Amino acid sequence: MPSTVTITRDTILCVSLAARPSNIGTRFHNFLYDELGLDFVYKAFAPADLEAAVAGIRGLGIRGAGVSMPFKEACIPLLDELDPSAAAIDSVNTIVNGGGRLRGYNTDYLAVQQVLAAHEVPADLEFAVLGNGGMAKAVVAALRDAGFTSGTVVAPRSLDKARALAEQYGFDAAVGAPPTPARLLVNVTPIGMAGGPQEHDLSFARGLVEQAEVVFDVVAFPPETPLVRLGAELGRTTLTGAEVIAVQAAEQFVLYTGVRPTPDQVRRASEFSRA
Questions:
Q1: What is the pLDDT of residues 120-167, one digit of tens each?
Q2: In angstroms, rounded to a whole number, what is the distance separating the alpha carbons of residues 211 and 32?
Q3: Contacts for 167-174 with beta carbons within 8 Å, 24 or more apart?
Q4: C-beta neighbour count of 214 within 10 angstroms
């Protein structure tokens, strides 16, 4: 979809900050700006200096920023205040600049809850979440608040990090792999991400996937990670990062612009972002 927006000195800039940014968010937001005739533009960045990047948001009057791995926790000391959505889990995925005052939000939490509900994932499933960063906090908090009572947080390397997150929400902890099979597997690491060193790897061993009922990979690019692909081949219910990113990006869009797109507009923007 070619853009018809002309960039001027009054055009409002929004950005994303990620170690390995994709074009998904950029295409999603710019599609909706064009669709709704808003004088905004969105650009992705991979900052080498996070502190300088956040200072640039404030100093240049950038309206907002999406925040991805590995900056979701590191950016917090650089902000002026946290919305309850971010303060509850100590993780930020959205920064909104209100006249030079930076407020952190977390729309990942809401997105995970909505995706679980849309697929009607039963809350009595025992889960294993692989990961211990900012997105893992959003996932574990969303699972707990959706009524899940039994699960394990699995850290790739550090048991202390897994234990800290697990104890915060009342779950078990492990390192490397879940100690027993779980019926719901959730990957919240970069394993399977396009362009990464492990893009062709499975985040969970095949045997664990074979014993699961539901597999959920928050990696958004590609939507069909090795984990999702295997789950689909085995006939398991699969939830993708593409679904999560569409919901959380739509909530970010509202925070930046004050305009709520229709579900059809969100669907088309999501399809365009992955084309």
A1: 999 999 999 999 888 899 999 999 999 999 999 999 888 998 999 999
A2: 40
A3: 168/140, 169/140, 169/141, 169/143, 169/144, 170/144, 171/140, 171/144, 174/128
A4: 20
* Active site positions, annotated: 72
What is the per-residue pLDDT across 90-105, written as a single tens digit (0 to 9) for each? 889 999 999 999 999 9
Is the domain of 87 the same as that of 70? yes
Coil, helix or strand at residue 162: helix
Rounded to whole angstroms, the Cα distance separating 96 from 14 reads 9
Q: Helices marked H in 37-133 — which ranges?
A: 50-59, 84-87, 108-118
Which tokens go with 241? Answer: 């990062």
Query: How far apart are the C-alpha atoms of 245 and 222, rounded to whole Å?
Result: 12
Residue 127 lies in a domain: yes
Please indicate, yes or no, whether residues 260 and 204 belong to a single structural domain of this protein.
Answer: no
Q: How many CB atoms lie within 10 A of CB 30?
A: 22
Does residue 6 lie within any of the structural domains? no
Q: For residue 197, what pLDDT is reported?
A: 93
pTM confidence score: 0.82
Selection from 101, 55, 61, 92 nearest residue 74 by Cα: 92
Task: Tell me whether the omega of the peptide bond preceding residue 2 falls within 30 degrees of 0, making it cis.
Answer: no
pLDDT, tens digit, 9 for 90 and up, residues 31-66: 999 999 999 999 999 999 999 999 999 999 999 999
